[in-house]
Write a structure and sequence with these properties.
Layout: H1 6-11, H2 16-42, H3 45-65, H4 88-93, H5 112-177
Bound molecules: zinc ion.
């Protein structure tokens, strides 16, 4: 049996349809909690981890059904996830404040899987930065090569000019002599 706060139903001016909808969502939540227990028996960490998102979605839908604004600060069911080992009293004291105390070891809310993901991302980032470093080095080397070949070209063209000039001078001297 699902008991709902009668005062609140009056206050929110809920219809029978609204109430039926809320009860349906509670049934869904109970089913989800039963499934989580099954996932725990199977040690299905992925599903257990995903359950946090599913519960949150149900909490938002419950807020919709109760005609409240969607606000995760008001969520409480996340703490009663059967797989959750976060401190109960410390969190209950902080209900509706927006503060949550997650236990690091909690399979649902702890950071074990998240850290692994971050590590993978960090490794990828390192690979990428290594690649860009290599590319940058290559670019620099290429630029240096182009620059040095330009300098050589400039030098040789100046030498040619010098040659031409000395030839001209020679010719001019010869002309003067004759
Ligand atoms: Zn937890």
């Amino acid at each position: 049996m699902i008991k709902l706060n009668k005062e609140l139903i009056k206050k929110q001016n809920l219809t029978k349809k609204d109430i039926a909808n809320i009860k349906k969502l509670h049934v869904k939540k109970n089913k989800l909690f039963n499934n989580i227990k099954k996932w725990m028996n199977k040690n299905d960490l992925k599903k257990i981890k995903e359950s946090a998102k599913l519960i949150e979605e149900l909490e938002f839908k419950l807020q919709d059904a109760w005609k409240f604004e969607r606000n995760s600060k008001m969520h409480t069911h996340w703490l009663y996830n059967p797989a959750c080992t976060c401190p109960k009293l410390d969190n209950e004291e902080r209900f509706y404040t927006g503060q949550r105390i997650y236990s690091k070891d909690c399979i649902v809310h702890g950071d074990t899987i998240e850290i692994k993901k971050e590590e993978v991302v960090k490794e990828k980032d390192l690979e990428i930065s290594d690649k860009t470093k290599k590319i940058n080095q290559k670019e620099l080397e290429e630029k240096a090569e182009i620059l040095s070949s330009k300098i050589i070209k400039a030098k040789s063209s100046r030498e040619i000019d010098d040659l031409k000039l000395s030839e001209k001078i020679k010719k001019a001297k010869e002309l003067l002599k004759s």
